[in-house]
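User: When convenient, might I ask for sequence and structure tokens for a protein?

AI:
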Amino acid sequence: MPLQNSSSGCFLKEYEARTGRTCKPPPQSSRRKNFEFEPLSTTALILEDRPSNLPAKSVEEALRHRQEYDEMVAEAKKREIKEAHKRKRIMKERFKQEENIASAMVIWINEILPNWEVMRSTRRVRELWWQGLPPSVRGKVWSLAVGNELNITPELYEIFLSRAKERWKSFSETSSENDTEGVSVADREASLELIKLDISRTFPSLYIFQKGGPYHDVLHSILGAYTCYRPDVGYVQGMSFIAAVLILNLEEADAFIAFANLLNKPCQLAFFRVDHSMMLKYFATFEVFFEENLSKLFLHFKSYSLTPDIYLIDWIFTLYSKSLPLDLACRVWDVFCRDGEEFLFRTGLGILRLYEDILLQMDFIHIAQFLTKLPEDITSEKLFSCIAAIQMQNSTKKWTQVFASVMKDIKEGEKNSSPALKS
């Protein structure tokens, strides 16, 4: 293509002097030949000639495209360097974390576990505990912290597992999946047909608890044995997540012992037995600390009549193992085993604090949806920083004292509203 004016000529000479290349615009009549190579990326297409059925690029346009391409390449290199630095930083942090875990493991194995009763409540151990338990000792520490007030033995587990297997066999012989009339509630709850659906939904991305997976039968055995051991509680949806986390950290019999004792704690028993009266007391106590720590968000929730049961039930039922990434949920379990039920509600407030700014912009429906399915990119550092900022003390009262006051107030309220007293 001929140069249109002297300005174009200057551009051409400058380009040739700078690059050492001769720019020869293709003649109008020439057809575009097949490329001997493909461009390395779509970015490089900006340098290619137009098809023969379109007007050819002017020299100015060719120069501009070259400049734009160079800028895009430079920007891509900047991103690549930034990503490389980020990867290096992550690897450095991971290496440091692994070093910390390794050194902590030595302390737990050599110093703390052999002297458990003496050291468990010391300041040094509590601080180390807060940082998260090394995976190699996690199950052992959980077992010791949860305890075995029920005095369950591995032999007792085998007995209740045998009973569960007999029930499953009897149930499968006498009933079809859709024919459960006439079968007791305990039989139905203990049956494979009615708990297998919940098992298949337990950490589905891991695949290890699904049918054919290595831990499917173990999970089913523990849940089945528990329904026979505690027919008054039976099988409740959400239990499978708790049992699954224990299975990942303990041998089968030990997992059952920890599972049964954990569910026997007052808070868990209230929720899994669906004791509405007790659940309301826990919610009322939670709201005292909610208002104390996050007053603005508390009023925002109140304005929409958004009560704690809407989001807390799912969190408490699964001890956060369904709501949080598994590694983060395990760290929550670590401190829960240290501090008891109080930490479950403190974690809930930590989550609300972490997302306070976002939640304040939402209405009822969006808040409920958000808290039901939390962001997957939630990190341990951010969450525990928010949890640490939550004060579990109202005036001079701690969690247990506030809970006791709520219990007393509700009992007095029930007495005053009693028809017998009124008459």
In short: The chain is about 65% helix and 0% strand.
